[in-house]
Amino acid sequence: MSLIGVIFWIVILAMVVALIVKVMPVYYENLSLQHIVQQQVQATTPEESLDRVRRDLNDRLAVAMIEIPQQDIFISRNGSSGPVQIRVDYERKVPLFANVSLLIHFDTRA
C-alpha cells in the first residue's frame, strides 16, 4: 500500500470517529429518556391524573438535564383507570461541519 493509500484510510477513519463522537451523546440521551419514560410508567398509579404524570416526568427529565419540548410529549390513558401510555416523538439536529447537519428522529414509547 502506498503512502497516499495510507493517508486516504487515515482520513476516512478520522471522519468516522468524528461522526461517532458527535452522534453518540444524542443516542445516549435517547437511551436515558427511554429509561426515564419506562420508570415513570411503572411508578404511575391508576388514580394519578395525567397532569401529575406530566409534572413528574418533567421533573425526572430536568434532573437528567434532558430538554424535550412539551408539544413532543404525549401522555394518555386507556380508559378511566387503565395504564398510562407515554410517547415522546422528537428530533435532534447534530451539526457535522460547515453548513451540514444530521437530523435524527426519535420515537420513544412506554
Structural notes for this entry:
The chain is an alpha+beta fold and 110 residues long. The protein has one domain (26-109). It contains 2 helices and 3 strands. Strands 1-2-3 form a 3-stranded antiparallel β-sheet, covered by helices on one side. A hairpin with a 6-residue loop joins strand 1 (73-77) and strand 2 (84-97). Helix 1 (3-43) packs antiparallel against helix 2. The longest helix has 41 residues, at 3-43. It is elongated and about 70 Å long. The mean pLDDT is 92. Keywords: Membrane, Transmembrane, Transmembrane helix.
Q: Which range best describes the helical content: under 10%, 10-25%, 25-40%, 40-55%, 55-70% or over 70%?
A: 40-55%
Strand content: 25-35%
* Helix and strand composition category: alpha+beta
Helices, by number, come to 2
Distance between the termini: 52 Å
Q: Compute the gyration radius: what is it?
A: 20 Å
Helix/strand order: HHEEE
Count of the domains: 1
Number of strands: 3
Low-confidence stretches: none
Protein name: DUF4845 domain-containing protein
Keywords: Membrane, Transmembrane, Transmembrane helix
Pfam families: DUF4845 (PF16137)
Transmembrane segments: 6-28
